[in-house]
Amino acid sequence: MVNEHVKQNVYFILFRIATFLSIVVLLFILLFIFKEGVGVIDIKFLTSMWSHRDITQGGIFPAIIGTIFLAIGVSIISIPIGICTAIYLNEYAKENLLTRTIKLAIRNLAGVPSIVYGIFGLAFFVLFLKLGGSLIAASLTLGFMTLPWIITASEEALKAVPLSFREGSYALGATKWQTVRKNVLPHSFSGMLTGSILGISRAMGETAPIIMVGATFFMGYLPTSPFDKFMALPYHLFILATQHSSPYAREYALGTALVLIALIFMFNFGVFVLRYKLRRKKEW
Amino acid sequence: MEKNNVKISIEDLNFWYNSKQILFNIDLKLYSKKITALIGPSGCGKSTLLRCINRMNDLIPISKFDGKIFYNNEDIYEKNTDVIELRKKVGMVFQKPNPFPMSIFDNVAYGLRIQNMTDKNKIKQIVKESLEKADLWEEVKDRLNLSAFRLSGGQQQRLCIARSLAINPEIILLDEPCSALDPLATAKIESLLRKLKDERTIIIVTHNMHQAKRISDYTCYLLNGKVIEYSGTAEMFDNPKNKLTKDYIQGVFG
Amino acid sequence: MQNHRKLKEKLIEIFFSAISIIALLILIGIFVFLFITGIKTFTQISPAEFFLGTEWNPTAYGEPKWGILSLVIGTLMVTFGSLVIAIPLGLASAVYLSEIARPKIRETIKPIIEMIAGIPSVVLGLIGILFLSPLIAKVFGLSSGLNALTSSIIVGIMVLPTIISISEDVLTSLPNEFREASLALGATKWQMIRMILLPAALSGILAAMMLGLGRAVGETMAVLMVAGNSIAMPFSFFDSVRPMTANIAIEIKEVVKGSLHYEALFAIGLVLFVMTFIVNFISDIIIEKQVRKYKW
């Protein structure tokens, strides 16, 4: 029996190490980006237009704006459709072939490689629908990619509403829509919203789907219409890291990465706080 | 049995859940303005039977039903039946109190609002009357805006009864309403049920035979999905005709 | 009144169901477009050459080569390497979090691990180029650290959170009765984990691995940045590789729309789509088995 205890202690120590290794990796990544990238961050970096000839004279403001515009576009496309789909699947759908097929489709969409979304966007939105490389083509492409995440998060929010609320409502002679509207949606809406925000923040970090549908490394002006090309933080960072010849490219890539991570973490942190506050308020 | 008004007549009811048969050839007449208790061991089908009466079992997709249930001379399982209207006339109180996450007032008003009642004064009046009939008014009249979850278990259950009463159902179905409550809370609800039967028909599922004996006029004993015996309560407990009934009753009374 | 209400309810249901079909249409649409563009490739290139040819050189003067085998091997190497790293670490962490760690520690660590999943792949690629790759080059005495090994490590990091969180979910959802019964018989915790819990959770853990595999196969940016992107057939993990995803990303910008090269890239996309579809399908079946067993 002593043998078993010894074995257990050894294994458990290994497991502990494994777990903390993951944390160490994360911390290292964040610290590395912060330490190496913070040097280049200043007001000029954040608010100036990109200077092509001498990058030290400019900033990544248009990339920030482009990413934000893209986030808005993706939200418009994926959030309403995603929430409605979740409502259907969780509240209305019966157990039949159609429902199972839709659920299968959603799970598969979540697994399709991002570059495949990209070439689909190229073939369909840019070329077939003749939208050209543009904010709208990119929003649609990235929106399709984000849809399964929004649906999954919204479904979870709906499932969290206890069945007894629905039962109580039906037993009083309420219709399905009355029950959903008055007894399910009000209590799941915040969950769906926070889940959607997380999905959008993931979309903001994606590069592959936008490479060929409208993202560009340098534009002299800010996009003013959905049909304009645009700059975006992840693509900008990618080019700086792999193809730029300036001696300062490395620094600027790190600075861009830091801004991108900061933006994503701001969203995540906001959701975290919101969820914590809402959980305290919940009465069941 | 006395010649009373039959409010609900269940005829040859069979029920399956996922191809397993739960109820077998149920024939039962439920009398108006009386309390009828459905008793039996766990899993005998009494809750399932109850839920057939207001068609709550419709919500379970893998169930199958065969037979007729007549309410006011109409078979509620006919294709044309308006289930929504049925549930407004046949109310239900559940085993575990399930108030909505709203104020006490809004809970009781819910049933009225889904029927598009907008007259605020009328709503206020009906809420007050319902809470009075449920013996809860005095305890909550000063805090109607408080969340329903602040109430104790027994109060929550009386709130659910009030919520049901607000839409004035002819029949109230109660599925083991006191099983999650302490004896004091149970006693309160039992006395309230006795008052309610003057105006309504009450069907209560209970695993507590003492309770059945205390409050019901008629008792039906179910075993393995079949009606074993059905008669006046006093008669059944003092002089059960079926041996199975006798075994069950004496098994618990000891 | 009744009919009016019934009609309204029916319309609302139809509205929601119509919107839900969009998800299905998107999946079909992606497949259709990949197919109609990619299939044209095979009117000019034989499937044998495409799938078994070892040289990919579409822009060569003279005879262009269309063999994707080296690309496929690149994908497989990086996928395999990443799972070799992520599965042991991920499983160990999942067991720790689910069975050993105090609840407070678990609640703190879980979100931290989720944060790794939140780091964009392009940022991890950046770390790969600037930090990991030079390090690997130094440690192993290579001229360049852009190879399958570095890619495996980076993709392994990306896949880790998926494996940890799903495996941990499966373990925590196992009925407590298992633990109590085992301990009541005098078993140590590790014996309980090893002999009761892990076998019971096997299907779910397998599914977690499959999902991780799917993610690794589909990873684009990180491998694009650190895999080296040489189109030569790789023979060791120290060789530079060009996984299929990276290949598409590199060449799609320069290719002439509608050309054979363009169609061939779509054919590669089709291969990727089918691969991830199959992986997803298998993990679905596995998950269903686990759900039916323990109501997870």
What does this structure look like?
The complex is a heterotrimer of chains A (284), B (254) and C (296). With 284 residues, chain A is mainly α. In chain A, 74% of the residues lie in helices and 0% in strands. Chain A has helices spanning 2-37, 43-47, 61-92, 97-111, 114-128, 135-159, 163-171, 176-204, 233-242, 249-281. In chain A, helix 5 (114-128) crosses helix 6 and helix 9 (233-242) packs antiparallel against helix 10. The model of chain A has no long low-confidence stretch (mean pLDDT 91). Chain B has helices at 46-53, 83-89, 104-113, 120-133, 137-140, 153-165, 183-196, 209-215, 233-238, 243-253, and strands spanning 6-17, 20-31, 35-39, 63-71, 74-75, 90-93, 171-175, 201-205, 218-223, 226-232. In chain B, helix 3 crosses helix 4, helix 3 (104-113) packs parallel to helix 6 and helix 4 packs across helix 6. The longest helix of chain B has 14 residues, at 120-133. Chain B is globular. By secondary structure, chain C is an all-alpha fold. Chain C has helices spanning 2-38, 41-44, 47-52, 69-100, 103-118, 121-140, 148-172, 176-184, 189-218, 221-226, 244-252, 260-294; strands at residues 56-57, 65-66. In chain C, helix 4 packs parallel to helix 7 (148-172), helix 6 (121-140) packs across helix 7 (148-172) and helix 11 (244-252) runs antiparallel to helix 12 (260-294). The two termini of chain C are 44 Å apart. The model of chain C has no long low-confidence stretch (mean pLDDT 89). At the A-C interface, helix 1, helix 3, helix 4, helix 5 and helix 6 of A face helix 1, helix 4, helix 5, helix 6 and helix 7 of C.
Order of helices and strands of chain C: HHHEEHHHHHHHHH
Strand content of chain B: 25-35%
Looking at this structure, what is the CATH superfamily of the domain at 6-98 and 171-253 in chain B? Answer: P-loop containing nucleotide triphosphate hydrolases
Biggest interface and its residues per chain?
A: A-C, 82 and 85 residues
Q: Would you count the extended β strands of chain C for me?
A: 2
Helix tally of chain B? 10
Query: What's the name of the CATH homologous superfamily of the largest domain in chain C?
Result: MetI-like
